[in-house]
TrEMBL record:
UniProt keyword Nucleus, yes or no: yes
The UniProt record lists the keyword Transmembrane helix: no
Keyword terms, alphabetized: Nucleus
Any one GO MF annotation of this record: zinc ion binding
Pfam families: Fungal_trans_2 (PF11951), Zn_clus (PF00172)
UniProt protein name: Zn(2)-C6 fungal-type domain-containing protein
Database matches in SUPFAM superfamilies: Zn2/Cys6 DNA-binding domain
PANTHER family: STEROL REGULATORY ELEMENT-BINDING PROTEIN ECM22
InterPro entries named in the record: Fun_TF (IPR021858), Zn2-C6_fun-type_DNA-bd_sf (IPR036864), Zn2-C6_fungal_TF (IPR052400), Zn2Cys6_DnaBD (IPR001138)
Gene3D superfamilies the record matches: Zn(2)-C6 fungal-type DNA-binding domain (4.10.240.10)
Tree of life domain: Eukaryota
Organism of provenance: Staphylotrichum tortipilum
Residue stretches making up the Zn(2)-C6 fungal-type domain: 19-49
Amino acid sequence: MADRKPYHPKRPHRKTRTGCRACKARRVKCDEGRPACRACTARQESCVYAIRPTAAPSSAVSSLGAGSDPSSPGAVALRARRPHAASVTQQPLFVAPGRDEIDMRLLWFYTTATYASFSTGGMRERSVDVVLKVNVVQHAFANPFLMNCVLGLSAMHMNQLGIRNMGVSRAHEIRYRANAVETYRKAVAAADPVTYPALLVCSLLLCALSTHVFRGDDAQPFAILDWMALWKGIGTIIDITRQPRVFRSGVAALLFRPPIDLDASARCVPAYLLFMVASIKPGDPDFDLVQRYYEALQFLGSLYLELRNGFSHMLVLRVVTLPTFLPKQVIDAAREKRPRALIILAHYLVFLKFRVMSCWWMDGISEHELPNVARCIGPDWADVMRVPLAAMCISSNRDLVRLLLDDPDWDQPTTLQLEPLTSTCERELAIRAVMQEDAIARDAGEDKTKNVQVWPC
């Protein structure tokens, strides 16, 4: 009988399912090293890890409904119960010199979601997504004041969404914001031409970061006037930094303001507002401001003109940039609590009530300031305050348009993404995934709490 060959058990082998694409293509075991595995490093090849397929969010859309709020407890709980929900890597693959892990998480969140705060979608006039995600980050690494502003805005966005499991607290948000303002002021005082592109970007982002003053117990009445003055200050920064190097830096596209047809806009101003200014007689304290009031109404009319075409990214851009057009004298008159200036301000606040996903940082401004304006003006001006007073009780975008255009049957399609669960774009998937993981972590913590027995003394 032939001798049997000795039996050698096979070496245990754990199959990897998360290796890089190059190793998978060669059918070799990947050591899953980050940022590059050993095999790819030896071959001097690009090491790319595949993202595991996840369930499409359409089921969540159909279950929650197109008009649901992604941050509501019901929506978050429903997403947390889904076993095949999207997964997002929250840990940074590397930590840049001089930065910690929290910084890198915030930077990832900015390039994934927060950048869209200043995005205008696919507008031919101003498609700036690449500028926001690439050029701005490049300048941020070279300029600490801009990096603090970017990280502060990202932290503010996370806290606005109620995300807690990424280790970003309100204290982080406050620290980044304070550092951003302090270092920005020093950079403006230094006026180094090398920093001009970063100063322009920072002045823009600070306008969003500063809207924290409209929320919380510390919110002060008429803080919007300081906010509008900050917007006006961007023009000063543009005048200071108007050099060829700014346009070569790749960030000039962020400062685009759509031109306004003043004649067409003037025809769209509500008649009662025009009569309010036309009725000013010599001897009235506002007589010297008549021309400035007309100019402010012309700029306000551009919002009504754009609104007739329905919701669009151009409408949002006009609403956001309107303070940069308003005459300084009208803002100063509002500080003095002059009724006509406050009435013009109140009508602008109605446009700020529109719920637009990308401009999350504007949420709450109208709710905070419209009651302040109404209380300050009093009942004597009720006839010209009809629209702002009615808007205080309206939350639907469609009903706001009907009120502003005085058209109870208005119902037109929109080119702007208004509801957060009706899109499958990258940033919204990322936000939903992070919020879901946060909900799962909270549910796990609640389950542990339920298992703890409290014994009576």
